[in-house]
Amino acid sequence: MALSEETRAKIAASWPDILDAVGAGEIGVTLESAAKALAGVGIRSVQRYARQTPGARQELDSALSDGADALVERLPSLILATPDARRARVLVDTLFRIAAARDPKRYGAKSAMTLDVRTVDLTQIITNAQARLAASRTIEGVVAARCIEQGGTGQEAEFADGGRAGGGGRDSGGSTASGVVNVDLALQKLL
């Protein structure tokens, strides 16, 4: 919705005064009260003016930030001037919330999150892992030959990585009557 020329002229004439009033950080002076007292218009008209006029939004944001600074700088003296601790606490909380509304980057809740998403190409990592897995499944000729040589004796076969495949008894779970069984056990332990 566009502003009428009359409303625009009223705001433009009192714009520096509105910015000064908001930037002073006086207690009780809001953008709404400054707009009504100085230009005779409502806050919505001032907000529209700030959006539609080049550079006005930045000027208003700067004035609101200055007002927030002035409020925060005034807090220690207000605390000392208020004899009741509970009243001082309420006053400080209220003024700090006003400052946070006027300048949320500096005085707002620090819960603003920055999400940094990065993509990682896992193709090379997966390829290397698959190559290592394939290499660990390969039985060297010496290991297979040892298993076959010890077939049926109930002795253990040693693997290249230092592990052992049991011949008989509890570890194998059955008889080792042939070398084929020991080779099968060796393969199962490797996989």
Description:
The chain is mainly α and 191 residues long. It has two domains: 5-107, Homeodomain-like (Arc Repressor Mutant, subunit A); 139-190, no CATH class. 63% of the residues lie in helices and 2% in strands. The protein contains nine helices and two strands. The chain has helices at 5-23, 31-38, 43-52, 56-81, 85-102, 104-107, 123-137, 141-149, 179-190; strands at 157-158, 164-165. It has a two-stranded antiparallel sheet. The longest helix is centred in the middle third of the chain and has 26 residues, at 56-81. The protein is elongated and about 90 Å long. It starts with a helix and ends with a helix. The model is unreliable at 152-157 and 165-181 (pLDDT under 50).
Give me the secondary-structure category: mainly alpha
State which percent range the strand residues make up: under 5%
Question: Could you tell me the mean pLDDT?
Answer: 76
Q: What is the level 1 CATH name of the largest domain?
A: Mainly Alpha
Q: Can you tell me the overall shape?
A: elongated
Number of strands: 2
- Tally the structural domains: 2
- Element pattern in H and E: HHHHHHHHEEH
Low-confidence stretches: 152-157, 165-181
Q: What is the CA-CA span between the terminal residues?
A: 74 Å
Rg result: 40 Å
The biggest sheet amounts to: 2 strands, antiparallel
Strand order of the largest sheet: 1-2
- What is CATH's topology name of the largest domain? Arc Repressor Mutant, subunit A
The percentage helix is: 55-70%
Assigned CATH architecture of the largest domain: Orthogonal Bundle
